[in-house]
Amino acid sequence: MAGLQIDTDALAAIAHAEKNLAQDKSHSDYSHDQKYDPEAPVQDGIHDGLEFPTDEERITLRRVTDTIPWNSFLIAFIELVERFSYYGTTVVFTNYIQQPLPDGSRTGAGGRNGQSGALGKGQRASTGLTTFNQFWVYFIPLFGAYVADTYWGRYKTVCVSVGIALFGHVLLIISSVPGVIEHPDGSLACFIVALIIMGLGTGGFKPNTSPLVAEQYKKTRLFIRYTKSGEKVIVDPSLTTSSIYMYFYLFINIGALVGQIGMTYSEKYVGFWLAYMLPTALFLLCPIVLFYGRNRYICSPPTGSVLGRAIRVCNFAARGRWSWNPIKCYTQMKAPGFWDAAKPSMLAPGDRPAWMTYNDVWVDELRRGLAACKVFVWFPIYWLTYNQINNNLTSQAATMVTNGVPNDVLSNLDPLALIIFIPICDLFLYPGLRRLGFNFTPIKKMTLGFYTGAAAMAWAAVLQHYIYITNPCGYYVSTCSETSNLNVWIQTGSYVLIAFSEILASITSLEYAFTKAPKNMRSLVMSVCLFTTAVSAAIGEAFVSLSSDPLLVWNYGSMGVLSFVAGVLFWFTFKDLDAMEDQLNQIPAGGF
């Protein structure tokens, strides 16, 4: 990882100095004799006629967001429908796996005062399978991104993935219909096959809709605009991208909220077959909307895999810096000028390898993309806190007084809080901080997200302690027929804190993945961002042994401590990137 260190001097040179390059133009369509001047007029059909800020104006003028294009909302609606179908089904997985089929029931419905269930495999099995599902749906995006970047492009990959996911949804319905659900082993087998197929569909969908929604906005450079009051301001594309992802995440959580609330009541009063069928029916809107917008979306064509080329560039830059002494090796990899060695302009035309058909700026883009991937190193620890929502916290709710409310409906407090607070943050909090002169950068946001995730786990740990001491069965509440006298809505604190952590960490990570990645690596970098959830799920499997009585206080406490420590390490690891945010965002587009 030392070889990926970003060189401050080099980035400053990108933003403010001339690039006197001697590369033969047969190796690239980019002229290395040109200057990159952030104030120069641009004729590209996107920035034509815009006024660009001076260095002084970039420091002194207030920054604002641009108008979000309509196409972004159209793609966000597709994501809303897909998330309705995903969360609408997964929200009932814990009860479906953990709880037994109620006496006399053929659908799994528990009714007002009963507990819904089907397979009766216990809390550890439910936590294990739901954690596997988390791993699977966020591991497959690596392949979905590769297919999109190399062969199909994002739009076609999304369309094919929707068809695969629909087939998985059908199998999920079959696993829960009367006659099948009454045979736990057969139902479980069909259920697991459905999970695997749905994961394949989700894995192709997720890494490509996220960059596709932001690609609908094409401006990449800071430019001047005057407000209605006559104030001169800077329109910042990075802030616009941040706003796009805020509302993209809002649409995700509208879908999640409606899906989860509706399906928990369907499960409780009708049965699991309805909780799986309704999301499938709504998911059929996805291909319709995709077809409607087929000629409207701005899509980047597949450009071939850049992964092999990126590895070659890294190896070329590291020549002569390797050492068996780890300290010396780290120092040499981190030394200034690491990436300059891989730039074509640093080599005579006859010394360049045949594969070196890119330009200097693409090396800087690659460095920026790898920097984005580095930022995600600590995120698996953060996701450990979030992943408690749909397994252990759902099980915790079943041990308290619910007064007829389904125990798995409480998880909807998370998307509800997000729906409320996302517009508040985007319209009031973030602009207010900018007016006060506080630069709330992505690195600062993500750091605070780790801390709020830790606070959510601290709340859950304290609540679990009081559940143990107020329940008639003491430290074995999950197998007790009696519940604690605590009201289930006390869980609200955990869910609201997790929601705030998502606004700060999860949304910002999507924004960071998009803005820092080269255009032909966006799906790949986005998939790496999503893959951190898969890694977190794999780590979470190691904590499954804590997901049962009497160890649940230790489970939540461990998650909280890990998230807090990871937040501290995250800041100290990446605080240098925090000071270089503008330089990173202003690297021009390179090419081959």
UniProtKB/TrEMBL annotation:
This is PTR2-domain-containing protein. Its main location: membrane. GO terms for cellular component: plasma membrane. Residues 107-120 have a biased composition (Gly residues). GO terms for molecular function: dipeptide transmembrane transporter activity. InterPro entries: MFS_trans_sf, POT_fam, PTR2_symporter_CS. Gene3D superfamilies: MFS general substrate transporter like domains. Signal peptide: none annotated. The keyword Nucleotide-binding does not apply. Keywords: Membrane, Transmembrane, Transmembrane helix, Transport. It comes from Thelephora terrestris.
